[in-house]
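Input record (one chain):
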Amino acid sequence: MKISLNWLKDYVRLDASVDEICRAITFLGFEVEQVIRTGAPELKQVVVGEVLVRDKHPNADKLSVCQVDIGPAGGVKTIVCGAQNYIVGDRVPVALAGAVLPGNFTIKQSKIRGQLSDGMMCSARELGVAEDASGLLILTDRPALGTPINAVLPPGDVVFDIEITPNRPDCLSHLGIARELAAWFKVELVYPQENFHGDTGAQSRPELLQSVRVDAPEDCPLYSAHIVTGIKVGPSPAWMQQRLTAVGLRPINNIVDIGNYVMLEYGQPMHAFDARKLAGSQIIVRRAADGEKIVTLDGKERALNSRMLVIADAAKPVVIAGIMGSENSGVGDDTTDLVLEVAYFKRKSIRWTSRRLALSSDSSYRYERGIDPHTALEAGNRAIDLLVEHAGGKVVGPAYIVGGDVPWQREIVVTHGFICEKLGFDIAEADMEAAFESLELGITRKEPTPTRGTAWTVNIPSWRDDLDRPIDLVEEVLRLHGTDRIPAAVVSAPGLALEDDPVVLFNRRVTDYLVGHDFHECTTYTLRPGRELTSWVSQTAAAELALANPFVDDQSHLRPTLVMGLLDVLKLNQARGVAVSHLCEIGRVFIERNGQNLECAAVAFVIADDAERKWLKRGAADFYTVKHHVFALAAAGGIDLARQPLVPVTGSFCGWQEGHCAAAGEMAHGWTARFGLMNLAMVKALGIEGKVYAGIFAILPEQLAGGLVRRKYADFSLFPTALRDLALVVDQATPSDTVRKKLAGLARAAAGGKFDVECVEPFDVYQGEGLPAGKKSLAYSLVFRASNRTLTDEEVNAAMQKVQDELAKTTDYAIRK
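The corresponding structure, as predicted from the sequence alone:
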């Protein structure tokens, strides 16, 4: 929000320096992002002169040698000039020797093409007051000779570019900032004088506007329309143009400029209709029809829907309510009668429409943050005063005011003791009362209390909707007291013996693990293009993950996996010749389940073929490498994948290479894991060289809340193990892990608790000659140990015999001899 200092001085007497005003704005709770100075800087040795003689330069066709009278500042001077837009008798700015112009350009007495020049006649651009450099600045008012140029040029301005916090929409106006500064500097605030108070007189022109109807009062609680006839469209006054230009608005004509001026003054947007262009002489505030179209002032055709609020006449929509008018609704050079709209639109409706249409304006910016409906008509009266004064208009009937907000009344009771307790130091009661009054927070009642000092009942004005609790008044007192005046004191606070959030602990554990195994940690966007999601999730899930209004096409969906981003990073590094093969990321993913998007904590990694040239290479990564890492990551989340069934990932998700990847768990259990070889065709299409293995583990945050079960010390046996091998012939389709679990269960049953079965692991697989068709041989190593003795061959052999007998009885596995 740009605020003009000259404009502020209409409402509050500010004798402070610019630095002091910036400091005040900052301590009042706003940020001054920039201070812009407009107009001419201080220009010493630049005065008014008159051209007496203009002769052609003897050595240059485009130069002239002039005799210029600067009066008491130095008499007649000889000046060489290249401009062509002046004649003898014109009065112009003259920079004398020693003058310093903008850009640190110092004027010196010098020879130009052999002719001595005592100074320079100046253009507007050379003085820093405008961009025009086509010729000299002609002073048509003919000020006295020798007058310092700063006394002739329009005074400059200081513009503060202020960041207004979202809770203070009342300060999106010059009056709002003036109110704050008046309270800080303890000076009087002067409001603009109103002459029009709603009286339209006896004259009525109902043919210009026959009716106003509001069909959507829930989004437009207040709508007013006044008719102003006999206006003359033309330039707005110079002072108004200067102020609008200073704050970044381009003057257009007196009607448009008055609407913008009052919006920047009061914070209330408004719109002026050409009465002749309203079909049926009607205004209808309604919702648009689905597919209804409007061409807005920026020249773009926009399709509307039934959730959007429009201002329409009897035939068509003419304004997108609170945002922008149409090309054919505004005031033109031939407009003589207008209808002035001042309305209150609910912020939710305006915000939704603005985002949906990707269309914003100064009006929508204010409506989205909330305007004060109780001062809307006051702002309208101010605009009518300016229209009558500067456009020659006259207000006629009928005037329409439809609706109205609930009468405003909000009071907060706060005590002196409460404020001091929250501040941590004492402020005098008189100073607190003065702070309330200066902010126009009226005190309606004062009562003493036994222990808390005076209790004030404070009346909150309608423009301060952000004040609704006693603690809010504590902040107001402190703002005006000054945070720089808080006395120094020792801060004491109780220590909180709390652990970090479970998600943070999980992220820390998996990061430590992966970085410790030489993975490079990456960070990628949580939004992905929709076209790539089909490689990872179903069409239903992709639809659920789509954003309603994405900013760009390649960030249109929430990511269901971290692997996509890691593949992008891998591709980028390979393209730049960076020999990186191990990448990981810890972040959030979104997994669709039964029409609901579940936000999960996730960790993923990719391992690519190592392209770096080395004298000794390690073995390449394979399925079991990534399986080992995923098992470790799941364990960091409290999930033991060794106890979970693994299933192959089918062709439904072509991001994985079928037959070379596996999955465990599902979101019904609160977690899921996938790992294996990435789809070779997909990897090649992405432009990535070689094979890529990947793994991902995702878990709901609530599943991590229980934390990890701490492992406790357990005694271990000091006696040797007994090893046995067993080869089984099974169907080719039978997973090895299924056989292993069956074998381990039978071995433990055979041991009968007399000794332990420490592990059962496969060590060989064979298919081919000597085996029946469709069969394979799996060889397992069984490790037995007792905690209190060395096992004998007899008891281990007996247990193995029981295992073989049970296998023959309960399975179709054959023991390979």
